[in-house]
Amino acid sequence: MTQQKIKLGPFDIGMMVLSIVAVVNISVLMVMQLSADVRHYLLIMDTFICVVFLMHFFYNLAHSKDRRLYFKEHWIDFVASIPAIEIFRLARFLQVLRVIRLIKQTRHLMLSSLKDRIQTTLATMMVALVILIGASGLSIYLIEFDLPNANIRTAEDAIWWSLVTISTVGYGDYYPVSTAGRVVSILLIISGVSLFGVISGYIASYFITPQEKDQLAVQNKRIIKMQQHVEELDESVQALHNKLDKLLELKQQKPPEQQ
To answer: Which GO terms describe its biological process (predicted)?
Structure first.
């Protein structure tokens, strides 16, 4: 059990953040009096987050050495990830308690796990996408739904607009008509361009052929050797300078008749 807890990767930390977001979401649903559309929107986002949880759970289960032990230790994650069932959502509070316990037990290992730049970047992008899509969609709905000339009036419209906007596809079937809505759009477009640009760069790095990687490795070795040769030449030149300085000092110290 201890070994599996120690193996804490960037995606596990990302799931921790999404767990807290999911608990906040379900707390709002349970505590606050919301309109039907806002409640429907939060339920859609809850389902979307649950899909991410289930993908992460089954991926770890498939790659676990002891699947029975993994399921025994993480069954609460599976139960808490089942959407559309009210009683199962309450299990997410237990999930957050487990997350807090994991953070306390492995906080000294988080920095080492975050050294994997590719996984850390992809995990950060995934969490950022979920939060941006949810927050921007809810914002645009609350801003636009009651305007007389608005065309974003339902939760589905807001989520569709958010997905299309952050991906910079821009179908134009749904668009904001207010100044505040356009500001949200601008921020979401800039975020989408930045996020997908980084993701595309990292995905492209996976398609580098082994030959290209070998060539890069050879070039790096040559560069290192050249740097070593340059350093050796610098040392040799410095040694020659020192010898010349000593010879000049000796020459100056001799009497004129000996020179």
So the answer is: action potential
Residue that is written with structure tokens 């193996």 in the block: 7
Using CA atoms, how far apart are residues 45 and 51, in angstroms rounded to an integer? 10
Burial of 92 (0-12, 13-18, 19+ CB in 10 A): buried
Assess whether 102 and 21 both reside in one domain.
Answer: yes
Task: Provide the pLDDT confidence category of residue 69 given band limits of 50, 70 and 90.
Answer: confident
Same domain, 94 and 121: no
Number of domains present in the structure of the chain:
3
How far apart CA 54 and CA 46 sit, in angstroms, is: 12
The residue ranking higher by pLDDT, 212 or 182, is 182
Asked if residue 258 is part of any domain, the answer here is no
**Tokens 């994650």 sit on residue:** 77
In this structure, are 135 and 64 located in the same domain?
A: no
Query: 141: which residues sit within 8 A by CB, 6+ positions away?
Result: 37, 38, 41, 152, 154, 155, 157, 158
pLDDT reported for residue 5: 45
DSSP label at residue 110: H
